[in-house]
Design goal:
Order of helices and strands: EHEHEHEEHEHEHHHHEH
Distance between the termini: 58 Å
Structural class: alpha/beta
Strand order of the largest sheet: 1-8-7-2-6-3
CATH superfamily: P-loop containing nucleotide triphosphate hydrolases
Number of helices: 10
Strand content: 15-25%
Number of strands: 8
CATH architecture: 3-Layer(aba) Sandwich
CATH class: Alpha Beta
Helix content: 40-55%
Largest sheet: 6 strands, parallel
Number of domains: 1
């Protein structure tokens, strides 16, 4: 007789209310998601409200001035150094480093907005910072939007999200994950935490 085995839930999903309760009492948070969804803004608001060190993958790990990418070894070394701290919030997806980040993380906030909203987000921030560098980017890395970047955003959910899910399942199955899929959900989370708009 063939026995059917149920595979375990790939991530430990939590509700907005559960996440708010967890976020209010933890010290190490990862905020991940597609570009333009609002993860950097959310991470910076939480960092400010809870006095957490704000760590940006783009600014602190990935890029040198002028869009020069650090070596993978250097990126991993810099992550290990920074996550050794006790109180931080790290903004950036990059599943290839989940093996070192997730074991130190107490909750993941996955900003998973619709792709049209993400495209709108990158276009509006590009217009806002045209010719300048955003605070969460490395010096000399002025905002740019090209066809390749827009294609990355448009196909993120189908191509990239399965890697995110698999990475969480492999390296942080115990870590609670809040998936924020709308601006209303994000506002509800901030309201529950008492974070101003």
């Amino acid at each position: 007789m063939h026995q059917v085995t149920m595979s375990p839930e790939p991530i430990r999903a939590v509700s907005v209310a559960e996440a708010a309760d967890i976020i209010a009492r933890v010290e190490r948070i990862m905020v991940i998601g597609c570009s333009g969804g609002g993860k950097s803004t959310l991470a910076q608001k939480l960092a400010s409200h809870f006095s957490l060190t704000y760590l940006s993958i783009d600014r602190d790990i990935l890029w040198l001035p002028g869009w020069v990418e650090r070596s993978k070894e250097e990126q991993r070394r810099r992550i290990v150094e920074r996550i050794a701290g006790e109180r931080w919030i790290m903004d950036g997806t990059n599943p290839s480093t989940f093996d070192i980040r997730l074991p130190r993380t107490e909750i993941v906030i996955w900003v998973r907005m619709p792709r049209l909203l993400c495209v709108w987000g990158v276009m509006t921030r590009w217009l806002k910072h045209i010719g300048r560098t955003r605070p969460e980017m490395a010096p000399g890395c002025n905002d740019k939007v090209d066809w390749q970047f827009l294609k990355f955003i448009w196909t993120f959910e189908e191509k990239f999200s399965p890697r995110v899910t698999a990475g969480i399942a492999a390296h942080g199955p115990h870590v609670p994950v809040l998936q924020v899929k709308s601006r209303r959900q994000m506002r509800a989370l901030l309201d529950l935490l008492g974070v101003p708009a």
